[in-house]
Amino acid sequence: MKILLEMRPALDGHAGIPQETRLLFRGLSTLEGIDVEGLLQSGSRRLAKGLPPEGSAALARLSPDQRVNLLSRVVISLQKSHSLRDGVIDRVKAPFTMLGMLAATLLGFRQPLGRFDAAPFRDFVWRELFARTLPFEDFDIVTRGGFRVARQP
What we know:
4-stranded mixed sheet, 45% helix
């Protein structure tokens, strides 16, 4: 069985829903027969696209350094900006992004999910999603899982 678990709550806070998200991902990752992947997305920013699907020709054309470059862009796009300029830009773009997604949905378009290979970024995945409340003994369990990237909020 495959499960896609939204990880956005784990990016915020320590207790409550963020904690439940971390514990659920960890728990599902330990069960046999369950293939859990985390969905990385932002509530307000458009994210970088991540890697193409596994086994695709587009992925085969990418060199290892190009793959790391794409994954790095996802990491950077997930980081919260604390500048006033970026905050204003995000707020101005948000309604247009929402309208664009609504129009695309009404026209039958689907949002493809990119892949995020956590292997080169295990420390980032741990620090941003899990380290706030899980013990370090869970590091290998939660960072070996797969992740998907939803570009649109």
